[in-house]
Amino acid sequence: MNDSIIDLVGNTPLVKAKRLLNKPGVDLYFKLEGQNPGGSVKDRAAYNMIKSAMDRGEIDKNTKLIEATSGNTGIALAMIAGIFGLDIELIMPENSTIERVQTMRAYGAKVILTNAEDGIEGSRDYAEDKMRSGDYFMLNQFGNDDNWKAHYNTTGPEIWRDTDHKVTHFVSSMGTTGTIMGTSTYLKEKNHDIQIIGVQPTDDSRIPGIRKWPEAYLPKIFNPKKVDRVLEVSEKEAILMSRRLAEEEGIFAGMSSGGATAAALRLCDELESGLVVSIVCDRGDRYLSSDLFEK
Question: Which GO terms describe its biological process (predicted)?
Fold first, then answer.
């Protein structure tokens, strides 16, 4: 038995690709982060950012939290904040799927929607303006070391353990970059030859959860030296692979996971041998109001 839902964050399963890849000597495993209680990889960072800030005495039950989010981080923060009895206000673009907005509100968060044309950058600007009023505390997932440290302490060690130290390549979509920064740091300490592959959208593509940031908005936690290679995927590739993941592997996930899978399969085509781990960062049920799974 578990004392709290928080005990279920992490230790997500690794599942081997059976139909998408059949290449002797090369194995592809999916790390199913949708199995976290809040439904995404962001549960790890949300818990570590909030708990660490509380432990340091930076926030308490009288603190009003504010954060800009494109979706998954907001859901995770809303869940964790609710467990600790904290007030949180989440800012996101108005074109975010209704499932995400409703889930955040279900966990007790206040949600503010900003102009869709301004994207997540506009949400970040709005949150920072409100924080400067002095009434709010921003966790700042884009510049908070507790974000990537969550993955250094959990995601990386889990992959190393569950592959029996045989992982050769790690593939992750890049948004806030916390997942890839923390996992890379840990895995490189264990074996510097492990290759870290980041996934970004092509210039003309919009893929929720994956970004190619303008210089002014580049996450401060991002260190390009921790990524050996960056692969770009198109919106079409990400959509089609999300559908194939569901149909062929029984893995129901969002578009960023489809993008990461497309990049991972491209990588596997190049390899003669290896064990590739790719992050499936969330569940597909928070995209049902979009056209992701329409045919």
Answer: cysteine biosynthetic process from serine
**Rounded Cα distance, 104 and 122, in Å:** 19
Q: Say whether pTM exceeds 0.90.
A: yes
- Rounded CA separation 105/78 (Å): 8
pLDDT at 294: 86
- Would strands 26-32 and 14-16 be described as parallel, antiparallel, or unpaired? antiparallel
Q: How big is the chain by its Cα radius of gyration, in Å?
A: 18
Q: Exactly one of 31, 42, 188, 226 is catalytic; name it.
A: 42
Say if CB 249 and CB 220 are below 8 A apart: no
97 annotated to bind ligand: no
User: Cα separation of 268 and 5, whole Å?
Assistant: 36
Residue owning tokens 């079409």: 236
Q: Is-catalytic flag, 190? A: no
Q: Is residue 256 annotated as involved in ligand binding?
A: yes
What gap in Å lies between CA 171 and CA 174, rounded to an integer? Answer: 10
Query: Is 220 marked active-site?
Result: no
The pLDDT score that the predictor gives to residue 139 is: 94
Which residue in 12, 83, 27 sits closest to 283, CA to CA?
12
Q: Nearest Cα to 181, choosing from 231, 210, 219?
A: 219
**Tens digits of residue pLDDT in 144-169:** 999 999 999 999 999 999 999 999 99
Residue 114 pLDDT level (bands cut at 50, 70, 90): very high
